[in-house]
Amino acid sequence: MLAAKQELLLTRHFKLDKEYTAAYTGGKFVLMKDGRFGLALKDETITLIHIDTGRVIGKLAEDNEAVITFAVSQNQQILVTTSKNHLCKAYKLPSVDTLDLETV
Q1: Phi/psi of residue 58, each to 5°?
Q2: Higher model confidence: residue 58 or residue 5?
């Protein structure tokens, strides 16, 4: 009798409320100090991910060059990228407090 009840629960269908695409599929990942955001390398693009929702809220892609890795400074103010042509670039990261998450 108990097995029949468990089987019924497994066949229950639920309405999909929201669906998110994969924000992280392996590779380099950095969790920001506030714990609300993370930077990940996906499809040769650096993505800024909102941890609670899994939404990609920003992207950084090099022009005509694939990003192969990145690093973030200890104070999390500088992002350094390396592309396939071995070019390194440094970017000043905005404060996540200044991001308007409703418009992204």
Answers
A1: -170, 155
A2: 58
d(C-alpha 104, C-alpha 24), whole Å: 18
Amino acid code (one letter) for 33: K
Check: CB of residue 47 under 8 Å from CB of residue 56: yes
Structural domains of the chain in order of their starting residue, each with its CATH number: 24-95 (2.40.10)
Beta carbons of 48 and 72 less than 8 angstroms apart: no
Instruction: Kindly give, in sequence order, each residue whose CB lies less than 8 Å from that of residue 82, ignoring residues fewer than 6 positions away.
Output: 67, 68, 69, 70, 88
At 79, the amino acid letter reads L
- Three-state SS at 97: helix
Element (DSSP H or E) covering residue 70: strand 67-72
Grade residue 5 by pLDDT with cuts at 50, 70 and 90. low
Q: Is the pTM of this model over 0.70?
A: no
